[in-house]
Amino acid sequence: MARAQFDRNEVIEKSIELFWQKGFNASSMEQVVKRTGLKPGSIYYSFGNKEALFRESLESYARKRAAHLHKILDAAPTVGEGLCTILEEVVEESAKENYCSCFLVKTRLELAAEGNELYKYASAKLDEVEALLESYLKKEYSKKVSQRRATSLMMHIFGVRVYGYREGCVERMRQGLREGLPWLPWK
Amino acid sequence: MARAQFDRNEVIEKSIELFWQKGFNASSMEQVVKRTGLKPGSIYYSFGNKEALFRESLESYARKRAAHLHKILDAAPTVGEGLCTILEEVVEESAKENYCSCFLVKTRLELAAEGNELYKYASAKLDEVEALLESYLKKEYSKKVSQRRATSLMMHIFGVRVYGYREGCVERMRQGLREGLPWLPWK
DNA sequence: CACCCATTTGAATAATCACTCAAAAAACTA
DNA sequence: TAGTTTTTTGAGTGATTATTCAAATGGGTG
Fold it and tell me: Which partner from A50, A103, A159, B62 sits 20 to 30 angstroms from A12, CA to CA?
């Protein structure tokens, strides 16, 4: 076998599922073995160790999320409408079964102690999301207003990511978002 | 020894410190042994098991937080001013070394999978905080407005709890809060 | 076809985990 | 002070953890 037999993307996909749902510490490599079907040796040969596999999963997740945000904001007629779409999506995501917030947010909260590298990575990626929002806002607002509103948006997104665990909270969150972000073109 | 030799409150206090900082899964009972100075047998004899000790720690934390919120809101000249004080405190807390968000929020995010009892408890306590805020708001606003603003406040608090890990973010968050909560009497 | 080497295998390893228990010790009671 | 009950002690348990490795496997290449 000169080339690996498994599909690397599929393995990362399954790992994201597990790590996102359970977090770093509650996920065991045995569970990774079970979900991916690979043997322990293969996983370690291909990915190094648990932290490296987790990191690759986080990277993949962050890449896809950033691409998605870009796509929506580029497709929207105005920045404001794009932001409304994003927020509405985040709200609706919380209504799904097995909702588990945002992989980056969860990692930031779980691994903050001791300056963990995975924490640093998740934090850097979240900062990048804010920078992305700010850059789009600058198309319509001054630098000062854009920065303030980007931070406000981030806090609302984080808010929904935590609030969303509550059952039957979708309408409440919609109201709350309209209250806190009245400058957006809500429908 | 008919009565325990250690101070139960002190042990819970040390446990809160550990569990709050590291979370449930990254905290080992050996670390509890080290921090409290008790022997394993004593801990299990007095508290049952890890989950029960964690729960007692969570309960103690939640009780103290709720009392603190009540105290501030009762002492403030107006509800709005009390809310500003609370938010400013949460922001300033994030600037401390070893900042670790909110024990309840961290527990909610870490243990949501599989309907864990500790997750349910943390969630219920967070819901109670919102109910508390809403009851104070009703003194000055209609039921509808109070509910909407209580949710908005909760989302902002959650937002700060997650955003606060970012370094040098205090001024940013202050700006963001004023942007999202313009109806509060900010100074 | 034969060789090579990347990859797979799965049992094994050592560390750590939550938790237990029988015996010792230390209060309270009479 | 003698006896009873509660609490402490700390070595020990079995399960689970992340990780390793020598041997087997099989695709690519000449």
Answer: A159
